[in-house]
Amino acid sequence: MEGSRNPDHDKTSFWKKNSKTVPGRPSPKKDVKSNVKPKVVGATSFQDFQASVSDAWAMDDDDFCIISGLESTKISKKVSQSAALNVLNSHRNSTDMPVTSNEKLEAVASYEVDYVRNNRIPGRPQQLRCLNPPQDEDSESKLERFESVLANPPSLPELCKLSWSGIPVKVRAITWRLLSGYLPINLERRSGVLERKRQDYWNLVEKYYYAEHDETNRDIQHQINIDVPRMNPSIPLFQQKTVQIMFERILFIWSIRHPASGYVQGINDLVTPFYVVFLQEFILDNQAFETFHVDTLTEEQLRIIEADSFWCLSKFLDGIQDNYVFAQVGIQRKVHQLEELIKRVDETLHRHLKQHNVSYLQFSFRWLNNLLTRELPLRCTIRLWDTYLAENDCFASFQLYVCASFLLYWKDDLMRQNDFQGLLLLLQNLPTQSWTSSQISILVAEAYKLKVMFADAPNHLQSNTGDS
Amino acid sequence: MSTKDDEYDYLFKVVLIGDSGVGKSNLLSRFTRNEFNLESKSTIGVEFATRSMQVDGKTIKAQIWDTAGQERYRAITAAYYRGAVGALLVYDIAKHLTYENVERWLRELRDHADQNIVIMLVGNKSDLRHLRAVLTEEAKAFAERNGLSFIETSALDSTNVDLAFQNILTEIYRIVSQKQIRDPPEGDTIRPQNVEPIDVKPTMNSDGVRKQCCQ
Known about the structure:
- Chain A: InterPro entries: Rab-GAP-TBC_dom, Rab-GAP_TBC_sf.
- Chain A: It comes from Zophobas morio.
- The complex is a heterodimer.
- Chain A is built from 24 helices and no strands.
- By secondary structure, chain A is mainly α.
- Chain B is of the alpha/beta class.
- Chain B has a six-stranded mixed β-sheet with strand order 2-3-1-4-5-6, with helices on both faces.
């Protein structure tokens, strides 16, 4: 994501440019390196630091990005005022915050405070926790910025930066296509490429899906047919026959094109975010997708949803192929890395789990295999994937940090469990039903912080090669 | 460590195995929570639940591991066979293929589980009478030939679900308690007190580290 663009003309290089004066935002790797050096002079305490940047911390992610280009970008007066008010209120009321958020704060406090003190890396994610109102990716200001970026051939790094903190639903489909490398940046090439790719997909369907299957392919199809009808039992959309057939085709074509893995249970869940996002493009008036009847769409629209879901899924899974090959080595490696990571950042929690004989494989296998889709409501998964897609090729390793921050998020609840059974039942059924994108923002911000911390010390995760 | 749930005399680890879609997860949810979902999500990897039952006045706590049916998951799920003293091998009475695959699952157990594991063959979905594809007698005969116990269940209408678990836990309990009479519990695996899991018999393989069953 960190390009070598001229910071003066590029507001998206905000993190790099302003990381010292407007900290709070998880800094990119380069800055951390420089910050670790002793010559860097920063606030003498976290409180000083917090006070010095309090004007920035109240704003949602979007507005953070705006600040980057102070000289060239207008800040809405209303936004800045309400943001300032938010800061004041929240500082004033910081003792009135719900217990849980305080507890959550403490969950990472021990290493975090040390880290801040020693390295002058501000704890921006914490602030998100306290101050961010729910659902920020659909704010007007954010939509405007997306629209202006998308109006011209966008710079991909710029789009990634903007997307990292959430994409408004109105522009999510086109942004996901761009981030997936499916839709060309070049405006003139777009319609031609899309048309060709979509036709390619339908040619594949014609050639393979409706052809006579050999035994391997029959097995694949059999497994897909078992899984698709029971994908999201609580969402009526996925009970519709038309939808199920679309999923079956997407999964089947993907599987035969990836013979090293083939179809693996859970990959069906990974189609759903793409499907919903491309479906939402055709849903008018904020109708809920959960109860939408796809048969009201035209044949052409359905063909677009299906083909685009397929191509974007394919791109997305490219980085995590080894999760699904024989023995699922990719997952086993990541489970091990997760354990190593938690051992280092929160030994208390790690010891607690070990003391009660909980192994990381027992709970994190599903997290990694299904990229948390089973642990989060679908709306949250979609918001999380805004960030994953913005992470681009780094998403495979970033996902590990997301899992770590997800586990740490529940630390207090886990510490209260005092036996194997209690721990495992909780870990299998983490109460995220009421989560919104604000929790996801916390999650990815914490994950980013971990990533930054460990990107400097790759040997901490011996087999981790993802960050560069 | 002293919640009510932990007051038990024996802790038995049991695995649920069988083809995809035969109803393993629903058997488990019916048994442990009295719940059933017609379309329940596929199991990814392994899921865990537990329930205690009385056998001969003793409290038996069953720690049950529900495994994913797809072949690709075998490497992961097989790790959970170790230390298991019981296995419910489930097929769908309405899908003959799931019954044909029982032999493969038995091989799987032979390769990865304790050789003395108690195995019960379970024909699930007995409510689907009109779709029956596997005859009760045929399955029963197969079970006898292979030294398995046998039962047909319906997680949907609850038929025989408790009984299936009750039977296998009782069978395990009998073996364990007889073994205790024969040789007192100072051996390496029989621990009749709380907390520690019970193995039916020591495994013969000597490849070192025996993974602890559970707690």
